Amino acid sequence: MSGTSLDGIDLAEIEFSITDENTSNNTWHFDIRSARTYPYSLLWKQKLQQAISYNEEELTKLDGEYTAYLSEVIIDFIKENELHQLDAICSHGHTILHQPENGRTLQIGNQKQLSKLIGQKVVCDFRVQDVALGGQGAPLVPVGDVLLFSAYDYCLNLGGFANVSKQVDGKRIAYDLCPVNIILNRFAEKLGKPFDDGGLFAKSGVINLELLEQLNGLPFYKKSPPKSLGLEWVQRFVFPLLDATNISAKDMLRTLVEHFAIQIAGEFCEGKSVLITGGGAYNSFLIDRIRYHKQVNIVIPSNEIIEFKEALIFGLLGVLKLRGEVNCLASVTGAEMDHSSGSIFFP
User: Fold this and answer.
1) Peptide bond preceding 139: is omega within 30 degrees of 0, i.e. cis?
2) Which domains occur in the chain, in start order?
3) What are the tens digits of pLDDT across the range 208-253?
4) Is the pTM of this model over 0.90?
5) What is the reported pLDDT for 226?
6) How far apart are CA 235 and CA 238, in angstroms?
7) How far is CA 308 from CA 17, 180, 315, in A?
8) 130, 89 contact by CB (below 8 A)
9) How are beta strands 154-158 and 273-277 bridged, if at all?
10) For range 28-43, the mean pLDDT
11) How many whole angstroms separate alpha carbon 304 and alpha carbon 32?
């Protein structure tokens, strides 16, 4: 799994099992045996940041290069953990373009060549079919929330973007809420750090009320689900507002945290349980501000689940695809129907 925050590539060795296979009450279980994040080099981070402006020829070349790079990382992980008899490699790839309104989404690293390079069965490219069926192609994690984390009223992921998953009238719905680390990290880097550790920079800043009002007034927040966000939206609607505001990086971070906390807390009902994962779960100041705006029971799980929940669930999506079972929910993405998405490649 590689996310928009560009932290690196998350790899996890996971064993899935299921009880009551022949009944409607089957229950999925998982065991994360080993896991590691391989950070991106500065060169790769720059390539992935710039790729949104590439033409088709440049994207094709990058896709091939990234597929080869991804194969090297996967092979290193397999050797490092002495893994044998794997059923499949389930890979998300890295999102470069996400324009469901134009019928397009692109995750590089999902070429058939990946299977040949690593000598393993590969399940990948989970988003394209959903967009072709009229869906948003995102978020795809909620099917895992249903099968693995149904004990919580809400599952909140705080990654490059924040997204929430919940049950409504017996159906799972999920959608993006707002950007998070994709913007916070940008301003932390101006202060010499890759991210705002614990939200300490933000905590020392002062809210710019005019900017806060502008951010909270963005039209996306008034849209009804299904809805999803991408870097293109941030570049078009958010960065111009931030660039036009002449305030310090710490004041910017403080204002952004308040904005994100308001948008996120507004999705919850008082007293409900919220499982929080993703890198933003370590931003204790952001978590405190969410609690300030809505009294909910926030649950922060183990570091392993915080950091590798998306890798875990994309592994599950691959298993469901291999079993011919639904792994994309129309109630979440807005597609024409529930479906089993992804491509299966053999070496």
Assistant:
1) yes
2) 8-137+309-345 (3.30.420.40), 142-304 (3.30.420.40)
3) 999 999 999 999 999 999 898 988 899 999 999 999 999 999 999 9
4) no
5) 87
6) 6
7) 18, 18, 11
8) no
9) parallel
10) 96
11) 8
